[in-house]
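User: Assemble these into one structure.

Assistant: Restating your components, then the assembled model:
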Amino acid sequence: MIRDVTLGQYFPGSSFLHRMDPRSKILLMVFYVVTLFLGDTALSYGLLLVTTAAVILLTRISLKFYLRGLKPLLFIMVFTGILNMLYSDGEPLFEFWIFSVSWNGIFSALFMILRIVLMVLIMSVLTYTTSPLLLTGGLERLLHPLTYLRVPVHDFAMMMTIALRFIPTLLEETEKIMNAQKARGADFESGSLVRRAKALIPILIPLFVSAFRRAEELAVAMECRCYEGDRKNRTRFVEYRFTWRDLVGALFCAALLVGVILLNRVIVWNGVGV
Amino acid sequence: MSEVILKAEGLVEVYGAGTPFEKTAVNNVSFELYENEFVGVIGHTGSGKSTLIQMLNGLIKPTEGTIYFRGEDVWAKKYDRRMLRSNVGLVFQYPEYQLFEETVEKDIAFGPRNMGLNEEEVALRVEQAMHFTGLSDKLRESSPFELSGGQKRRVAIAGILAMRPRVLILDEPTAGLDPKGCSEILANVREYQREERATVVLVSHSMEDVAANASRVLVLEKGNLKMLASTQEVFARGEELMKMGLNIPQITRIFLQLRARGHENLPSVLSPEEAIRCLDAVTGGGRK
Ligand SMILES: Nc1ncnc2c1ncn2[C@@H]1O[C@H](COP(=O)(O)OP(=O)(O)O)[C@@H](O)[C@H]1O
Ligand SMILES: [Mg+2]
């Protein structure tokens, strides 16, 4: 069913991560990804693997949703992995045709895959634990300094919020209209490409009509509540406040960075065939 | 009794199975619909009415259970479900939002054209459908988007009637219309039923409308089939209905209360006219 698409899906909850400030979650996520790319030894990756697993457990969201989020990337991961394996130098383990595979290659491929997996997982943690509204709200506050460069940050954030709010509504509407036309014998599944494109007209027209109607209604409703865009003295209903949770998160990420840098230096066996 | 036309057996529909949003919208519902009868479907919002009726014309595949149209399993391998949808016509809630053609005539013709009928037959059916729904001939060439809300609704209903369904299902067809528009649309539906000897399933929140039109009533609660009996019997169980958050026609409620106060000779009634007749009989005829 159309509604099942998971598009940065949010899972309501009240875990530690759910209750962190969206601004710090966004910043710390960026920080975490950078840290991920700094790691380059088995030890530092071991640490990152453990911490990511710990963070995921903290969200109290079933592991199967994280795995589901990884699925679409399976192909890219395997592809980059193989490329990395074939095109890295080092003492060849075995050779065939024009390729040579070395321990070095295998390790760098594994690291590459691990990097992508961990990155996707940590970004899922952000989108799974933060409602789209908070996410755009947090982004807006973070980008606020750009308003001094005359970037309409508030307007962009409002557009994004509205778009996010209406994606599920529009999907639902599409499904309804499709069903209504199917009830009149419309056929979207068979026939030539041209015929199928034509079959979309009975869906698209009502969809546009209703989207415009909704936009108009929303505009009126917003004006009725005296919305005038970004005004200097505009206060907010929801004030974001940093709490001890955000401090803990920041300390955790800082410690992780230090840990990764230190572990990078400890050359027990860094995979370069020492 | 006449023949069974649609049969539902153990229908179950689960939305979003395996996600945190899993929801059983319809739970083990079985019933039979007969030719040429008028069935009302009532239930609280979210009780699964819309889901149930979309299963009846093969738009939603039941998670479990079987639907038979004239004895044939509609989810059997080679079954033509497009044909089924013209036989079991479904008018969605707020059907005016599905209009898309340039003219009223073309929009009504969408269904019959999809059935592969020739132009002559299509034109005939459009004309008939417009007649059934009380749309004047002058509107043929108008854009459906410039009509009034009530007219749009009629055009949308005509679009289904033009396929001449043997079973006509309407999902809250009078929602958001003025009282006159409501009673006119219901009269149109009754006329269609009478002339085509079709089966009509009416989903409605108006107990008065159901009482005035349906011969049987199906009650859903939280996806479960709670009652399926003659309109008289169902509304006589007013207490239970009210526990489910449903209403009964006002006049029926008054008579129930009168009976509870000791007027045991009063029967259960469904309409003001019926009530007057009873009272006349009890008090020994009209005004003195
Ligand atoms: N496409 C859908 N996806 C997920 N849940 C749905 C969908 N359609 C309906 N539901 C849910 O199923 C239940 C029954 O809905 P519905 O059949 O529309 O009830 P009714 O028409 O009686 O108001 C509701 O709880 C509703 O939220
Ligand atoms: Mg409904």
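The longest helix of chain A spans residues 153-183.
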